[in-house]
Amino acid sequence: MLANKGYFVRLVSFSVLVLTAGLLAAYAQDQTLADIKYKDDYERLQRVVRVTVPIKRVEQLLAFYRDRSDADPKLRDYADNFFARDMDSLTKQANYVAMRGLCERALKIRPKFGEAYFYFGIVLKNEGKAQEAMNAFAKCHLIKNPFQTKGKQQLDILYRKSSGGSLIGENKIVDAARKELK
C-alpha cells in the first residue's frame, strides 16, 4: 500500500510537471505570435505615416483600422493621433467634402471613434445641420478620447445658439447620443 502511494505521488508530480511545461510552451508561443503581430502592425503604421498627403494617409489609416480591429491599443492611439492631425489639416483647408466621406467611413469601421465624431460634427456644423452636428459632438463627448472636452464645448456653443443662450435641455441630446452608442 505504501509503495502504491509513493508511485501515485510520483505519477501526479510528473503529470503536473509535464502539464506545466506544456502550458509554459503554449504561453511562450502566444507571446511570440503577439510580438510578431505587434511588430507587423508597427511596421505597417510606419509605412502609413510616411505618406505626406493627408487624404491618402487617412485612407490608409482606415484600411489599417479595418484590417486590424484587434490592434494593440498603443498602436491604435498612435494611428488615431495621425487621423486627428490629418483631419485638422483638412479642416484648415476647408475640405469638408473629403472630411465627410472619411469620417463616415471611419465611423462604419469604428462606431465608437471619438475623434471621427468630432470632425464629423465640424462638417455637419459647416453644412448648417446643427441638430446632427450636436449629436456628433455629444457622441464625441461621451466616448473616451482626446477630443471629449472640445466635443462638449462645440455641443454647448451650438445648443446655446439654437436655444437662445440656454443649456436647459441639452441633456436630452446627450442621452439620445448615449442610447445610439450602445
Structure notes:
The protein has 182 residues and is mainly α. The chain folds into 2 domains: 13-110, no CATH class; 114-182, no CATH class. It is built from 8 helices and no strands. The radius of gyration is 25 Å and the shape is elongated. The model has no long low-confidence stretch (mean pLDDT 90).
Largest sheet: none
Q: What is the overall silhouette?
A: elongated
On the 0 to 100 scale, the average pLDDT is: 90
Domains, number: 2
Distance between the termini: 63 Å
Residue share in β-strands: under 5%
Count of individual beta strands: 0
- Write down the secondary-structure element order: HHHHHHHH
- Uncertain stretches: none
Helix-strand makeup class = mainly alpha
- From the alpha carbons, calculate the radius of gyration and give it in angstroms: 25 Å
Question: What's the quaternary structure here?
Answer: single chain
| Tally of helical segments | 8
Instruction: Classify the helix fraction into a percent range.
Output: over 70%
Kindly list the characteristics that best describe this protein.
2 domains; mainly alpha; 0% strand; 82% helix; 182 residues; 8 helices
Structure in a nutshell:
This protein is mainly α and about 180 residues long.
Tell me the layout of helices and strands.
Elements: H1 2-49, H2 54-67, H3 73-92, H4 96-109, H5 114-126, H6 130-142, H7 148-162, H8 170-181
Helix pairs in contact: 1-2, 2-3, 2-4, 3-5, 4-5, 5-6, 5-7, 6-7, 6-8
